[in-house]
Design goal:
The protein is α+β, with helices and mostly antiparallel strands and about 375 residues long. The chain folds into 3 domains: about 100 residues, Acyl-CoA dehydrogenase/oxidase, N-terminal domain (Butyryl-Coa Dehydrogenase, subunit A, domain 1, Orthogonal Bundle), CATH 1.10.540; about 100 residues, Butyryl-CoA Dehydrogenase, subunit A, domain 2 (Beta Barrel); about 150 residues, Butyryl-CoA Dehydrogenase, subunit A, domain 3 (Up-down Bundle). About 45% of the residues lie in helices and about 15% in strands. The protein has a 7-stranded mixed beta sheet with strand order 5-6-2-1-3-4-7. Strand 1 and strand 2 form a beta hairpin. Helix 7 runs antiparallel to helix 10. The longest helix is centred in the C-terminal third of the chain and has 34 residues. It is globular and about 75 Å long.
Length: about 375
């Protein structure tokens, strides 16, 4: 397992194990405790995709996959927060240098926010005035900068565009303008703190945004900034499920080799459990191979210059299929473990809950398969979300 330098693997693993040990506390507080969040941020992982010009690592897509899978093995919530911090950091490569440095140069910089254009932004003197409320504000309690997707409107609320023709953008707010709402009461990923957040008539200065549908020129020539932004995000989400699935198989092995009350045989000696574990292992291993292959092909294309729609579609297919297969692997292990897995003392109970919240993210939702199938059939297909 390798990571973008200078992420410290030992310190990163220590933070991950600390999150695992404090799972009950994290679930109860519905966010990462301040000291744990600070420990995680101090490893440098949140700056994996921040340009080196701002003290980041300028890492690759596989750096994200490896890091997020690694920490998610120990804690789905900490893995999710890491994924959000890394992927939001990608935007720093497209911000005007003034704002890229202002928001992401600090060693403790960590961004978050939902890019879907849910808020409304009106052009005003010197920038934008934004009002909106967004869901899935993962990790916002420990973020140093929070953004939100907005559509551009005129003074009458009708659709309008920015000077460059963009009708929507991802705008970065002053923290003082953001109100976090207490809405994150969920079955899984409880510690991710993915609460709703809102702003009311928040001023965003000229240029402190990224038009994601028409990315501006990046600050450097790293292939990362020629990679599909949606594809990169989908890989982050599926990496969480990859880590959870690996944990599930290990937990089943540990559980199945322990004597159980009322039985002369351990679970590991039962043929059906052996079969379930083998199927789960196959799903985990084959999914990782698919991800590595898809990311490798697309990274090579980005190195050469640009990705085409077929390659972008391959990324989304790999992410969606891997998420589904990893969730199936978790289910196999959870069911094979029997009644013991319903107790909070058993890590499989938490892994099961976390996995089935992660699969609901739109980046790995099954609906992406329809346009992918259409494209494979050669039918006219919108690739805007690829």
């Amino acid at each position: 397992m390798t990571f973008a330098q200078p992420v410290d693997l030992a310190r990163f693993t220590a933070a991950a194990k600390a999150a695992d040990a404090r799972a009950d506390e994290i679930d109860a507080s519905r966010r990462l405790p301040e000291d744990l969040a600070a420990q995680l941020i101090s490893t440098g992982v949140m700056k994996t995709w921040v340009p080196t010009a701002y003290g980041g690592h300028g890492g690759s897509v596989m750096d994200l996959v490896n890091a997020v899978e690694h920490i998610s093995y120990y804690s789905g919530s900490a893995g999710w927060c890491s994924m959000i911090g890394i992927t939001t950091g990608l935007m720093s490569g497209f911000l005007p240098p003034k704002f890229g440095e202002e928001l992401f140069a600090s060693p403790g910089a960590c961004g978050g926010g939902l890019a879907a254009p849910i808020g409304v932004a009106t052009v005003v003197d010197g920038g934008l005035e934004v009002t909106g409320e967004w869901a899935w504000g993962s990790g916002t309690s420990h973020c140093t900068t929070i953004a939100g997707g907005v559509r551009i409107a005129d003074s009458n609320g009708e659709r309008a565009t920015l000077a460059d023709g963009a009708g929507a953008c991802f705008a970065f707010f002053d923290l003082a303008d953001v109100e976090l709402l207490d809405t994150w009461h969920t079955s899984g990923l409880r510690g991710s703190g993915s609460t709703h957040y809102k702003v009311e008539k928040a001023f965003v200065p000229e240029g402190r945004w990224v038009a994601m549908a028409n990315m501006p020129k990046p600050v450097d020539d790293n292939p990362l900034y020629r990679f599909s932004a949606f594809g990169a995000l989908s890989m982050g989400v599926t990496a969480v499920l990859m880590g959870l699935a690996r944990r599930a198989t290990d937990e089943l092995v540990a559980l199945a080799n322990k004597p159980s009350a009322g039985s002369k045989r351990v679970l590991a000696e039962r043929a059906v459990v052996q079969s379930q574990l083998a199927r789960a292992e196959a799903a985990v291993l084959s999914s990782r191979a698919f991800v590595e292959s898809a990311v490798g092909q697309c990274w090579d294309a980005a190195v050469e210059g640009a990705m085409d729609d077929r390659q972008k579609g391959l990324l989304r297919l790999a992410a969606a299929d891997t998420a589904s297969r990893c969730a199936d692997a978790v289910d196999l292990c959870y069911n094979a473990g029997g009644g013991t897995t319903v107790y909070k003392a058993n890590p499989l109970e938490r892994v099961f809950r976390d996995a089935h919240v992660a699969t609901q993210h739109q980046m790995v939702a099954e609906r992406i398969l329809e346009p992918l199938g259409r494209m494979r059939f050669g039918l006219p297909t919108s690739t805007a979300q690829f």
